[in-house]
Design goal:
This protein is α/β, with parallel strands linked by helices. The protein has helices at about 10-20, 45-50, 65-85, 105-120, 135-140, 160-170, 190-200, 215, 235-240; strands at about 1-5, 25-30, 55, 90-95, 125-130, 145, 145-150, 155, 180, 185-190, 205-210, 225-230. Helix 1 (about 10-20) crosses helix 6 (about 160-170), helix 3 runs parallel beside helix 4 (about 105-120) and helix 5 packs across helix 7 (about 190-200). The strands form three sheets. It has a seven-stranded parallel β-sheet, with helices on both faces. A three-stranded mixed β-sheet has the order 6-7-11. Strands 8-10 form a two-stranded antiparallel sheet. The longest helix has 19 residues, at about 65-85. The chain has one domain: 3-Layer(aba) Sandwich (Rossmann fold). It contains nine helices and twelve strands. Bound molecules: NADP nicotinamide-adenine-dinucleotide phosphate.
Amino acid sequence: MRIAIAGATGRIGSQLTALARKQGHEVVEVARETGFDLLSPDSGLEQALAGVDTVVDVTACPLDQAATFFPTVARNIGTAAAAAGVRRTVVLSIVGVDRSPDYDYYVAKLAQETAYRETAPGVVVLRATQFLDFASQMLAWNTQDGVATIIDVPTQPVATQEIVEVLLDLATGVIEGDTDLAGPQRVNLVDQVRALVEHSGQDVTVEAVEAPASLMAGAMLPGDDALVRGPGWDDWLGSQA
Ligand SMILES: NC(=O)c1ccc[n+]([C@@H]2O[C@H](COP(=O)([O-])OP(=O)(O)OC[C@H]3O[C@@H](n4cnc5c(N)ncnc54)[C@H](OP(=O)(O)O)[C@@H]3O)[C@@H](O)[C@H]2O)c1
């Protein structure tokens, strides 16, 4: 198949590009680095999508740009994909975006899903829980003067490798329809970051801070119908150097 990956140079996108090529698919890499600014309606995307069967969107942006970025990019990709005759559009979203009107990033991700459903052909949405390495991102982003302030939220993180495999199955039609995906172990994000600090021997104190109420009440946790795959937090951390 010919698959276009928007965000092909990113964390998920680079793994997805490698797996798709390994399985014999042709990949069109879409990112600013490869010449496409998806915030522009005239990025040349429609021409690049000629002959493409499926578009997968795994783009991301800084938090303070999300409200504009996600729906704008979705509309630009959706419109170009429809005009180019693409048959399927796969979108990576997050478990809980429909349950967190008090958290701006999730409101923006829900707007992304809606914009796709309004513009793009054959939309399927994968809502995943947090990446297993989200804890290390949170530690890096939120540490100052030896103190990490981490939101006090229950999570059920999943391996990026599992996300990539399910995205490719959705792109090729092996899995059909909207899907939720989570790892097997429920663990608070603050406890993950504490374990990570101990595991890596860093001299950092981890303090729990409040999050939007919906997240503290469990909006990031999967429902009973979610696919559950891959290692849990404890096994994954134990496998890290
Ligand atoms: N972190 C989590 O725990 C989690 C959980 C579930 C779902 N998600 C979702 O996963 C998705 C992917 O996350 P990630 O960490 O893999 O992202 P990432 O590493 O930050 O990659 C972002 C990608 O988007 C591209 N991009 C950004 N702005 C662009 C623009 N204007 N035009 C074209 N391309 C642009 C970047 O390439 P250039 O810079 O070259 O343009 C890059 O390829 C996000 O949508 C996020 O919401 C995250």
